[in-house]
Predict the structure.
Amino acid sequence: MDNRRLIIAVDGPAGAGKSTIAKRVAKILNIEYIDTGAMYRALTLKVIRAKVDINNIKEILKAMETTTIEFINNHIYLDGIKVDKEIRENVISTNVSYIAKIKEVRSMMIRLQRKIAESTNLIMDGRDIGTVVLPHANYKFFITASVEERARRRYIELTEGGNESITYEQVLEEIKTRDRIDSTREIAPLKKSPDAHLIDTTNKTIEESVKEVIDIIERG
Ligand code: DC
């Protein structure tokens, strides 16, 4: 790789394999990985812990004013405390889309994300990275998979993690709801940037998808 900055944007729906692929690509290229979904999840955790009504935008914004979200050594910190595990709980997954559609929340996150991207080579994943946050990224990928396959993966992840009370059908419904909210919201909806490479992971192994991404980057 030459001396110019390397900025890679990855977008796509929940469960498509974005973060798994992005993490591996980051390791191979020796660059940083930034999971922007984790940032929205961290704020959602704060709101839920504070028992703020998820529809009370005024209170959510008040909670946000006193919130710090940071990445330190690939861990996410909410107000100085590591919350990697807590942000993955299902209560966060089912509520995060409501937080992520608030205009002021998005502005704050975008500011933070651009600041992170100013100083380091990175691969950043989310929903609006190639379209809004880093439109000048060197490479853009839109990673997707069928909704059934994404639900299947998420179901395995949740049940392996000990959340035994959930069914596949519930997970499928939750993913469909999240897809709908994320792709129809007014501000920065999930959509493929026209210049993004489309990677469909439905029938691919992680290794195959990672190779596809690396091959595209190496081709320049
Ligand atoms: O990638 P994830 O499932 O951890 O993302 C959690 C939620 O955050 C997702 O439902 C949509 C929202 N999100 C967003 O709106 N914009 C981003 N750049 C990243 C995530």
Notes: Residues 29 and 214 are 9 Å apart (CA to CA). The first strand starts at residue 7 and ends at 11.
